[in-house]
Amino acid sequence: MVCPYSLDVPGGVQNHVRDLTEQLTSLGHQVSVLAPGEEGRGLPGYVVPAGRAVPVPYNGSVARLTFGPLAAKRTRRWLREGRFDLLHIHEPSVPSVSVLALWAARGPIVGTFHTSNTRSRAMSSAAAMLRPSMEKIGGRIAVSEHARRTLVQHFGGEPVIIPNGVFVDRFAVSPAARWSAPGGTVSFLGRLDEPRKGLATLLRAVPLLVRARPRVHVYVAGRGDVDAARRLLPAEHRDDVTFLGQVDDATRSELLASSDLFVAPQTGGESFGIVLVEAMAAGAPVLASDLPAFRAVLDNGRLGSTYPVGDADALARCAANLLADDGRRLGLRDAATEAARRYDWPLLTRDIVRVYETVRRTAAGRVGEDA
User: Judging by beta carbons within 10 Å of its beta carbon (0-12, 13-18, 19+), is residue 73 exposed, middle or buried?
Assistant: First the structure.
């Protein structure tokens, strides 16, 4: 498997690769993952580091990629020594080890496409150069309808949609009293210094929310500059928000399970919305910006509420209304918790393995024809 982004930093693609590797290994498969990184950085034992990761602005975020002659040499050696039955490349168009592996690889190849950005100039520019290599991919997977459209627009083909997953049972924990607040507990998970995650919108909503729901408390978890984020709040409301920094998986699950409302205020660049599924699995009612990808996960309001992207006033009103309406909030929670089961990794991995088997059979048939 190939991950274009360094696995020492959390992210949607990185988490997908880690979880899928864990589930495949539990089923008896042998998995080696090539990713940016260096020896001694605390990477899992199944990761082969391809070289020092360099931060590069990409798709509204900062991606840690690696490219160049040394990375290409390590990629070729990994492929040669691995003698893999199948190669699974995540984000085959990203200019990192994904592209390097695609160029160098032979044999059965599956590609998973995560990005949703039909207006990407970089992808449009690279499409002509990459399209011949893309033809080597025997099985294409898109994690959402929006990722599928991006792939079809830039590279053609007709991928199967298999969404991102979560280990559902790991989020099914009991609420903890330490997170409770008399006016309701609201949570946010995401990188603090990445504008598209929308934290600034949530913090602008805090004064209005507190006015409507005195003694509400907001918990913010994620990497980034806490002091800079705190300065976005008026001084009189800084005690209404607790910044937790990056939290471990157990704390993440407990916080979500204890939340009266989980808010996802992202402003763009989302192809799926795995953080919504995590909240749903934990039993946290969801309020999200009405991005197309989020509306799809929330089944157009059946599994969670939405508000206009970037509208802090609307966010505050919707949050206050939901916190005041136990029946509505708990109804959303119950429907969402049940729906989250469709994203359980054991189920999704079964579908991915079917793609593997189909691609391997097709490749074997071509070899037979050539013979």
Answer: middle
d(C-alpha 247, C-alpha 235), whole Å: 25
| Phi, psi of 106, rounded to the nearest 5 degrees | -130, 160
> How far apart, in whole angstroms, are the C-alpha atoms of residue 13 and residue 111?
13
Return d(Cα 93, Cα 91) in angstroms, integer: 5
The tens digit of pLDDT for each residue in 26-83 reads 999 999 999 998 876 778 899 999 999 888 876 667 788 999 999 999 999 999 999 9
Sequence-separated (6 or more) residues with CB below 8 Å from residue 266: 190, 196, 197, 198, 273, 288, 289, 291, 294
Alpha-carbon span 230 to 203, nearest angstrom = 9
d(CA 323, CA 212): 10
Q: How many CB atoms lie within 10 A of CB 144?
A: 23
Strand segments, DSSP code E, in the chain are: 33-35, 47-49, 54-58, 61-65, 87-90, 109-113, 139-142, 160-161, 185-189, 217-221, 241-245, 261-264, 286-289, 305-307
Residue type, 325: D
Rounded to the nearest angstrom, the gap between the alpha carbon of residue 157 and the centroid of all alpha carbons in its chain is 23
Over residues 158-214, the pLDDT tens digits come to 899 999 999 999 999 999 999 999 999 999 999 998 999 999 999 999 999 999 999
Q: Residue 288's beta-bridge partner residues?
A: 264, 306
Contact 102, 109 (CB under 8 A): yes
Q: Are strands 109-113 and 139-142 parallel, antiparallel or unpaired?
A: parallel
